[in-house]
Amino acid sequence: MSTLNSKTENQSRRASLSGGEAAEASALHEFTPEEQQRIMRRVDVRVVATVGLLYCFSVIDRSNLPSAAVAGMTEDLNLIGNHYSIISLVFFTTYTTFQPISIILARSIGPRAYFTGVTMICGFVVIGMAFLKHWGQMVALRVVLGALDSGFFPTCVYLLSTWYTRYEVGKRYSAFYIVVCLATAFSGILAFGFTKLEGKAGLRGWSWIFLMEGIITCCLGVLCYFVLVGFPDTKKRTWGFLSQQEIAWVVSRVQEDRGDAKLPALSVKGFLRGGADVKVWAFALIYFNQALVNFALSFFLPIILKENMGFSTGKAQIMIAPPYVLGAILMWISGWLGDHFMVRGPIIIGDMVVAIVGTALVGFHNDVAVRYTGVFLLTAGSFSSIPVVMAYQANNIRGQWKRAFSSGLVVAFGGVGGIAGSLIFRSQDKPRYLPGLSTCMGCAVLNIIIILGLSAYFYYWNAKAERGEVELEASEARN
To answer: Which domain of life, per UniProt (predicted)?
Structure first.
């Protein structure tokens, strides 16, 4: 359900277009349907596929700790007590606090320069992790990595939202995150392969994980400079991409749909004004709950498979893949259903129910096969709803700077969720980890409650708009 009554809103917007906007809107009719599809396919490849590939290695670089831990890093760096949890959570201290600065920086210098620089530096930091001798050094590099990664995801989400209309963006978020989900799935297999280099060049297997993944990240950073495109309102044309006329068509259709295709001048007050909207905070809390569960699984799933279910180190690294593959499939289905039926909340609720059932099986069933089935449901239900949550907030927040604020706040809350997620599976709770699993279940239940509340809120205001009693959100230019 959307905040906005689309029919009433679009009629109002067309009536209020200035002469320049009306001329630009005529671009909507300059291409045949076949040409329009071809344009959007090119946007899909250059925007969705490229940022998805970059972000998947951003995720791998930050979440390769459990594979390294079970491959000997725990013993070599003397990770006793809560050392591993500290290494996991310090990433999120800078990941959360640096996000507003990173988002504004990305919008100021453009995605190509931003993503290229961040990806290259992240690669060098991860390479450095291969040569550490003390766990305190890992803490320091994780802090740096968190600062570098802080604006990556919100900028990806924000960039996608500027190229697509409201009910196109859900499938694109899903496609973007499916790449990430599959990368997470096969990161364990990739790490398992790298550990076979144990002893080569005097390096342990866990060191080879960091070294090789860091090199791949650096190579992607170089590729990014030549392939990635910027925001659609950028004056400078990108090599091998769309013509100015085609970009004008993209901008005009977003303007027709949402009324905020063009970015107003930077205003700190306008950026921070998004914090006055209660919806922004509700979306942030939803994502906090999502992130807590997802990061907890990213950091601890191989350990849970080893300690809770008795799998060997190699099997634990490999067996994290199938649940994420199921998550990718359910993610695409969720995104398609959301766009097709123009709903978000019910889709998220369905995913949460799947996650709750999975959590119950992992935590409270005695049979190992059933518990592993629960891992499938928990992982798939939790991860599949991420792009739907991002589309949910993007559809219901208007104005580019307000949406930038919302994306930043949502992901910042995700960072706080990551801190919490790195702490819920404690060593003293093994092998069943019931407190951590109960926390995951509670987060899913809370999300269902919040979404039901938002749905009632949207229904109330949409009904008032249909009666002509209120005018719902306009763009920043008319606030």
So the answer is: Eukaryota
**Residue 50 pLDDT > 60:** yes
**Cα distance between residue 36 and residue 268, in whole Å:** 36
Residues whose CB is less than 8 angstroms from the CB of residue 404 and which lie 6 or more positions away in sequence, other chains included: 103, 107, 154, 158, 271, 274
* Strands in 371-474 per DSSP E: none
What digits encode the pLDDT tens for the residues 381-420?
A: 998 888 888 788 877 776 666 777 777 788 788 888 988 9
Helix (H) or strand (E) holding 425: none
Residue 240: the pLDDT is: 73
Report pTM: 0.70
Residues contacting 251, CB < 8 A, separation 6+: 24, 27, 232, 233, 261, 262
- Cβ contact 124:214 at 8 Å: yes
Residue 441: closest CA among 289, 330, 245: 289
d(CA 297, CA 292): 9
Q: What is the DSSP letter of 336?
A: H
Residue 163, burial from CB neighbour count under 10 angstroms (0-12, 13-18, 19+): buried
- For the chain, give every domain's residue range: 30-462
Cis peptide before 431 (omega within 30 of 0): yes
User: Can you give the pLDDT at residue 476?
Assistant: 39
d(CA 228, CA 447): 34
Chain centre to alpha carbon of residue 439 = 21
Q: Cβ of 291: how many Cβ atoms within 10 Å?
A: 27
Domain 30-462 in CATH 1.20.1250.20: yes
